[in-house]
Amino acid sequence: MEALDTLLLSRIQFAANISFHILFPTITIALGWVLLFFRLRFAWTADEKWMAAYRFWVKIFALSFAMGVVSGITMSFQFGTNWPGFMETVGNIAGPLLAYEVLTAFFLEAAFVGIMLFGFSRVPGWLHITATALVAFGTTLSTFWIIVLNSWMHTPQGYEIVDGVAFATSWWDIIFNPSMPYRFAHMMLASFLTVAFLVAGVSAFRWILGERSREVRAMLKTGVTIAALLIPVQIYMGDMHGLNTLEYQPQKVAAMEGNWETGPNVPLLLFALPDEEARENRFEIGVPSGASVILKHKPEGVVPGLNDFVAEDGTPQHPPVMQVFWSFRVMVGTGMAMLALSWTALAYMWLRRDRHEGRVAGHKLAVEGLPKPLLWALVPMAFSGWVATLAGWYTTEIGRQPWLVQGVMTTEMAVAEVPAPMVMGTLIAYLAVYATLLIAYVGVIAYLARKAARGRDAGADSMSHSGKAQVAALTPAE
Amino acid sequence: MFPDFSNPADWLPWAFASLMGLSILVYVVLDGFDLGVGILFPLADRGEQDRMIGSIGPFWDANETWLVLAVGLLLVAFPMAHGMILSQLYLPVFAMLIGLILRGVAFEFRAKARDRHKALWNRLFFVGSLTTALAQGFMLGLYIMGLVRTQDTYFFAALTGIFLAVGYSFIGATWLVHKTTGPLQAKALGWARLSLWGVVSGIAAVSLTTPLVSDRILAKWFSFPEILWLAPLPLLSAALIAAIWIMLRRMPFAGDRHNWLPFAASSVLFALAYVGLAYSFYPFVVPEQLTIYEAAAAPESLMIILVGACFVVPVILGYSVLAYVIFRGKATELRYE
Question: What start and end residues bound the annotated signal peptide (chain B) (predicted)?
Answer without folding.
Answer: none
